[in-house]
Amino acid sequence: MNKYLHFIYFITILPAYLQSQNNDYLNTLQILNSKKLSQNNIVSDNLKHSEFNVSFYTQFISNSGHPNLDNNAELFAPSRTTNIISARLEYATPWLSLSLEPYSISYNGGLNASQTLGSFGVLNNNHNISGNKTRVGFRQSRLIFHYKGVGVGYGNMSHWWGPGFHSAIALSNNAPSQETYALGTFKDIQIGKFSFGSQIIAMPYESNTGSQLYFSGLKGHLSHHAENTTITIGLHRTYLSGDFSNLSSTTISTNKWSLVDAAKLVIEPLFGQSKKNLGYTAPGTPGFDAWDEVLTGYVKLAFPKSGLTVYADVASDDNRGNLTDLFAHWDHTLGYQLGITKETKLNHYRVFSGVEFLTTRVSNTFNPKFYRGGEPPNYYAKSPYDYFTYQGRRMGAHSGSSSDDLIFVLGVLDDYSSTFVSFNKERHGIKSMSHPELKNEYVLTYQRKMSYYHTAFITLEYEHIKNFGFIQNNVSVSKLVWLGYSFSINQ
Questions:
Q1: Of 434, 381, 438, which is closest to residue 404 (Cα–Cα)?
Q2: Secondary structure letter of residue 398 according to DSSP
Q3: pTM here?
Q4: Average pLDDT, the chain
Q5: Residues paired with residue 350 on neighbouring β-strands, in sequence order
């Protein structure tokens, strides 16, 4: 049975040698407005000649209370004012795709942030920047060589791994762009009524203490397109590993750990006991290792004629010992995401509505009445990997460990403008803290295409957190105003 499951797994993810992820950095509004909820196709194999686009962006954020803004990569509001200016060049040929975006971002004035430590100290509302600072660099930049969508890529970019529009367990664009090596297809492969795609990526980076860390991940999905329904099944397998100084004394035979070693992890056996005696496992154990693994599988149903999409993503934090362990304790590290979106045409308007719920809270079956083991940390909780962060920002679901996240979105769009309102409710430290943080967020966004070249938007946000810093009845309020303008030239 174990070998059979490994065979099914291998067949499912085999295309991962062929695809890389779309690294779109657009925020939720822009994703919804441009219908880019699916991020599987970032190159075109239909180009007959070269194309290029040049864009200029400037954005300003005024904020009070505590740090704010989720899922916008480099753009974050940890100060009273935040300014970002960037210029983006996109160039494509039938075999090449190049995106470059140099940027400069400045922060001025400190905000209220709690002194919480550990996994809950890296929540967005606790990530402060002291003093005035300016950063420059390249964001969401990449170079891809491909043949009909199959190729290799390298760049400094963000990723979104999941079916949702607001959050993602495996990997999100909440953290800044990261150096990324990618191998695979950059466009879904279509065979009859089926299409599929997958990817392997590897990202080297340093921890806060200077250790060399690696994120490696594998993604695969398969879709069936019928006249009225598109069904997609997919999975993500991610690892955090590192070249730690104690490897020679804590593993069977590993002394050094490299980017290539990290990339190979994503095609290792599923169960811990199948890894017994591998060089990087701990001696005398049934396949235990020091790495941090997350495995998710999702199903998405899309009904194009009605504009309805329903999805579910189920995740397991860290690997299981064997099949018996999986069946006996299937929910012990369970996390999941459920969502539904609907787009309706009303004259020349499009009305978008969506609901999404995500949770990483610890299972009730870890209650001592039912389980004699200790209650382990649940998602993003390992300190050697900075609690699944890069530059202090969570790389997965922004709500963090032992949390849940519920959002309602309503939008009205036409060819020239869009208006979105949303209500978001988050709880942080549900099972881990005596007084969990309770966050309510209200957002209003209006975007206007002023001409063929010019676009502007304004976002107003009110965010109220009770038990801020996990202190009973301590309240913090963020009032945020976000202005943006872009100028684009297409050829």
A1: 438
A2: T
A3: 0.87
A4: 85
A5: 345, 413
